[in-house]
């Protein structure tokens, strides 16, 4: 396939239960080969999964919020000269009774960038591969792996164990996430001790199920990605504002992370929202996310003897862009530190 010329811009969109995100990157040539340079990255809380657990349908307001956010992203793509786009959507959209309204909306908007483009729900295997690729692409040279990547979302949390070369040794998607737990169990603000205990028991059961499918015992590095982990990193580091450069690849001792998570589960949403590193749309659900993080750390410590967490600002979104470009041009792959 013909090589993409330097200057070609591509976009990835990841639409999850809680947020929709955009990444635009440009193909660049150098003496060392072809690489990708980030142009812009955006994150918008749309809560697409609002009530879908209970009703089996995407709420009309949630679709409208997602449409507004995606329309803004498409306008940015047009302004930046994007020529190819791929959008991946949460599996909840596939199962919703009114899914056609969602997919028709994405086809209309994305078609302005690339005719025929539409949101797609990918297989669990591909989701694992893309998440792992994105989360580990900037792993420091001294982190040899194997890696266990934990991608904590609104409705699900993925566990992927793989090697530094990208070979996936095991992957599993659990039915736990910060939105799902908040809507189902931790409904009080702040959550009660009983709610936290019930959520913790559910999370532990989900992690135990994941351990049947994922060889966590063989992992040497734990990598957390997506908004709950990155926000917890910002809080643990004591940042005055959300700083992606300081958060990306930050190394945190488990005990320091636990201090942060205990604070989050005890606080009200209003107190959390007052912290400058907290996205307003995450304040009401991150307490549930903190419970998931605590139990992930406990499992990694018990099963693999790991006591440090690496937090990645990159995740499936970066994998989508890298995969999109490598799919268009078989000669281009993600650059990894040697």
UniProtKB/TrEMBL annotation:
Q: Which GO terms describe its molecular function?
A: exopolyphosphatase activity; guanosine-5'-triphosphate,3'-diphosphate diphosphatase activity
First-tier enzyme category under EC: hydrolase
UniProt cross-references to Gene3D superfamilies, sorted A to Z: 3.30.420.40, Exopolyphosphatase. Domain 2
What are its E.C. numbers?
A: 3.6.1.11, 3.6.1.40
Q: What is this protein called?
A: Exopolyphosphatase/guanosine-5'-triphosphate, 3'-diphosphate pyrophosphatase
Q: Which organism is it from?
A: Corynebacterium aquatimens
Q: Which PANTHER family match?
A: EXOPOLYPHOSPHATASE (PTHR30005), EXOPOLYPHOSPHATASE 2 (PTHR30005:SF13)
Q: Which domain of life is it from?
A: Bacteria
Q: Which residues form the Ppx/GppA phosphatase N-terminal domain?
A: 32-320
Q: Which UniProt keywords apply?
A: Hydrolase
């Amino acid at each position: 396939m013909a090589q993409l010329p330097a200057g070609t811009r591509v976009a990835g969109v990841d639409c999850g239960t809680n947020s929709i995100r955009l990444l635009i990157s440009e193909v660049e040539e150098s003496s060392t080969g072809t690489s990708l340079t980030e142009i812009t990255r955006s994150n918008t809380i749309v809560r697409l999964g609002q009530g879908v657990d209970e009703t089996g349908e995407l709420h009309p307001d949630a679709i409208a919020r997602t449409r507004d956010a995606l329309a803004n992203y498409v306008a940015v793509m047009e302004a930046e000269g994007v020529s190819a786009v791929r959008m991946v959507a949460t599996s909840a959209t596939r199962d919703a009774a009114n899914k056609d309204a969602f997919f028709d909306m994405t086809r209309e908007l994305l078609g302005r960038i690339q005719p025929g483009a539409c949101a797609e729900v990918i297989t669990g295997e591909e989701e694992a591969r893309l998440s792992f690729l994105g989360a580990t692409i900037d792993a420091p040279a001294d982190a040899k792996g194997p890696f266990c990547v934990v991608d904590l979302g609104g409705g699900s949390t993925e566990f992927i164990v793989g090697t530094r070369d990208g070979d996936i040794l095991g992957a599993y998607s659990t039915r736990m996430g910060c939105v799902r737990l908040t809507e189902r169990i931790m409904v009080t603000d702040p959550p009660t001790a009983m709610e936290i205990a019930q959520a913790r028991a559910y999370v532990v059961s989900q992690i135990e199920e994941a351990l049947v499918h994922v060889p966590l015992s063989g992992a040497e590095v734990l990598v957390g990605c997506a908004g709950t982990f990155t926000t917890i990193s910002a809080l643990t580091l004591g940042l005055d504002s959300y700083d992606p450069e300081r958060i990306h690849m930050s190394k945190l001792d488990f005990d320091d992370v636990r201090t942060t998570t205990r604070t989050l589960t005890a606080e009200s949403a209003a107190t959390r929202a007052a912290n400058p590193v907290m996205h307003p749309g995450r304040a009401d659900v991150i307490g549930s996310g903190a419970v998931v993080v605590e139990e992930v750390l406990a499992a990694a410590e018990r099963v693999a003897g790991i006591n440090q967490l690496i937090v990645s600002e990159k995740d499936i979104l970066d994998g989508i862009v890298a995969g999109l470009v490598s799919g268009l041009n078989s000669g281009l792959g993600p650059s990894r530190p040697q």
